[in-house]
Design brief:
alpha+beta; Ribosomal Protein L22, Chain A; about 35% helix; Ribosomal_uL22_CS
Amino acid sequence: MRGRGGASARWLPSAFAALAPQMAERGVELPKWSATRWIRRTPRSNTRETAQAIKGMHIRKATKYLKDVTLKKQCVPFRRYNGGVGRCAQAKQWGWTQGRWPKKSAEFLLHMLKNAESNAELKGLDVDSLVIEHIQVNKAPKMRRRTYRAHGRINPYMSSPCHIEMILTEKEQIVPKPEEEVAQKKKISQKKLKKQKLMARE
């Protein structure tokens, strides 16, 4: 199925669409965002686990991580859809035991990141400060095929595609607190002063 990328003026991501009326009532503006959404023929469960792994990551870090997944240098921890998933030493860095390397899902998400980055440049956002604020994977209508069995029977041969939605926002720059030029003098009690004087006399 063909994917649909980019964020048009008519379309608002579902995550923001739900919050938009409440934020408008409070007088709060939506943050600057770049979004992309696709319908993809990739397993929903694998894509969901991969999406959760990159949620909250910086765009550069997420890109490197997904490339490592395709090369089997890092794994994706399977936390929800983990029935029959084998254990993997690389999952230890996530505090988990089960993991896999869903190559197809990682490649699709890499393509989406590139698309969202292009949308951000078009909107005038700072690409180097983009963070994956929101990503969600939903069920899409199953695609039907058939497989032929013994004795003239036919069984369904279904695929489980998914809708993927990704939102990138600019991360706020944290300015370090300036160091105090003059250190505050520590107050010394009268009792301690008297003790110091006595010690000095001796």
